[in-house]
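Memo to structure team: turn this sequence into structure tokens by end of day. - J.P.
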Amino acid sequence: MAKIKTIYYVCGLVHSQDRVLLVRPLAYNGRPFTPFFFPGTKIKKSDDEEKALLNAIKLKYKGEVSIDTYIGESVRIINKTRFVLKAYYCSLIVTFFLPRTKIDYRWASPEEMKRLRFDHNDGDIAERYNIFKVVYDGELQAGGRSLKETGELNFYLDSFEYFARLIAAKDVQDFNALMRTKASIEHLRKAYKYVMRLNQLDYNVYLDHYEKTHRPDKKDLVRLTTDELNIPDKKAASEKMVDGDIVESDAEAYKLRDTLSDSRPHKLLPAQIVGIVILSDSVVIEIVTLIIAVVPLIPDFYSSVAGSLLLVLSSIAFVIGVMLAFYARKEG
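Reply from structure team:
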């Protein structure tokens, strides 16, 4: 098996007035040579990342920045080569000098970035910026989460704990910080899916583990809801009543789906309806023949051919009615 080569890069998300600098080189005819990427440079694994980034911005782009915080990294494997991009959040100090004939650049807002085409790793970093921007800008404040949302978020944190060393610590830290902002639950779900995808983790693996270790309590009241994570193969979500409070757990609804379906009212099958009619008629005939014989309205009725035939036919009808009325449900 061929050894995978690893190439390291470092880049800076240089922000100014809620916009971030994007660059791309131009070909000799003035057309873009590559998709957009964040200014940076190629480095060695042993290099000082922050120092290399500051020097590259000063020499290549004639600008000056200060590093605010480390954002995270993106790892992509393309044609047996692993590309690792480490990103830093930077503040602009001295405006960049970028020759228009050689470099296409723009200061893009978060919304504009969603519509632009990025290089592979830079696309991951751009998505990360859009999701965790409030964290990098230091806009941390109590989100005032309900018990329902808290239960769902704790479920996500438990899955991070389950995967442990398979997930980057920085990703978990940023998600925890995002929980302490006013970000909506929909935004946090998006952040969770991003972290799982970035670390190449399968949400269903944790769901399988959870279902094996958390058997549902039959006394729990569970009903389906439309709050979904949009996870393939397991899209169910639920609300579970616990001491009068609502706590969401999509895994439990998935486990109890069959139980819920069994509790729904069943409709009578056509065969059952016929069976009930036959059964009722046979019972009536049996009662009538018994009255005729006991009173007796017709002497020696059971000894006659007509009486015996009526009794046999009513017994056969009774058996057929029972089979259709009760056995048809098992077959349906």
